[in-house]
Design brief:
This protein has helices at residues 9-18, 24-35, 49-58, 131-146, 167-178, 198-206, 222-228, 237-251, 269-279, 304-316, 337-340; strands at residues 2-3, 59-60, 65-71, 77-83, 89-96, 101-104, 108-110, 125-128, 154-157, 190-194, 212-216, 255-261, 284-290, 320-323. By secondary structure, it is of the alpha/beta class. It folds into 2 domains: 2-60, DNA polymerase, domain 1, CATH 1.10.150; 65-331, Alpha-Beta Barrel (TIM Barrel), CATH 3.20.20. The strands form 3 sheets. The chain has a 10-stranded mixed beta sheet with strand order 3-4-5-6-9-10-11-12-13-14. Strand 10 (190-194), helix 6 (198-206) and strand 11 (212-216) form a beta-alpha-beta unit. The longest helix is centred in the middle third of the chain and has 16 residues, at 131-146. Bound molecules: S-adenosyl-L-homocysteine. The site of S-adenosyl-L-homocysteine has 18 residues, from strand 10 and strand 12.
Length: 343
Amino acid sequence: MQEICSLTLESLQAWMERNGEKAFRAGQVYDWIYTHGAQSFEQMTNLAKSLREKLAGAFLFPALKLVRTLESEDGETIKFLWELADGKRVESVLIMSASRRTVCVSCQVGCPARCAFCASGKEGLLRNLSTGEIVEQVLHIDRYLKTKGERVCHIVFMGMGEPMENYNSVVEAISIFNHPKAFLISQRRITVSTVGVVEGIDKLAKEDLSVNLVLSLHAPNQHLRKKIIPYARKYPLEEILMAMERYAKETKRDITYEYTLLADLNDGREEAEELASLLRGKQCTVNLIPYNPVDGLRLRRPAKEAIEEFREILVDAGINTTWRYTKGKDIAAACGQLALQNG
Ligand code: SAH
């Protein structure tokens, strides 16, 4: 059964008309879901009982069941573990900083990219999430925040999965996040992170969306990148970088590169210098993320001095560099870690 949150307002209007109802009923359903926080069709009391029954017979709502939440010790990160209708599990993370409420959403169960350091890809791709399963992650967290007088204001596609490999659902979910009758979150507050799928990057550049695009770079050359990211075999680094520049030109968005620092693998002076010469003079930001340990992986987080030295080399080369100590370390908030824990 299709999730009601998979439908754009226009497609719900069309459904109403096909089913002998007035199109404006779609707006009422949208209001119940996205403004009034209804949690079932039953609660949509200004709709006739017959229409509520018709909707319940045609659509799944809600599609996500909350299994549990985990809050980090500093209270800045809350992880939500969801169960889907088929029993599979995904997670989202709410990140709270002084001024922002950001939700990190998943777009797939598992991940086809299988990066060496990442928990999400350990078992490969299990399935894509539907548009509604992506949208509901934000819907339920937004409802939770509203009880405290707050709202979700930023969304990042940095949870489980590779957005470019579930392209249509991701783009549709973005249009719902952006829609005035749904979340009204502006495109500049939505970020898609990709492992580097050239045709996906080019396609996204041509959408009527100007979301921020981040590339998970993790290495300064194709040889090392292939060791860390098996998916890199499909797309040479040079081609990915050119696609990122086309994206930036087309959408007028700045480019961000993410670089997960792994001790003795990609964190040396040599890699830092190579990265500096690769990016020198380019309008971009490098976001350094020290590796967040994942059970069963024999990788290590670099020492603080190594991270500092790496950063300084980039800064000295005039490259805009940020350094993020992964939030929510104590609750396994790195991508995919919670969904892999049992129970
Ligand atoms: N597939 C997409 C989005 C998911 S991963 C992509 O590859 O970009 C998003 C980011 O999570 C990656 O850039 C990586 O930096 C980070 N990440 C995942 N697992 C991590 C870990 N164990 N430690 C540090 N960063 C991690």
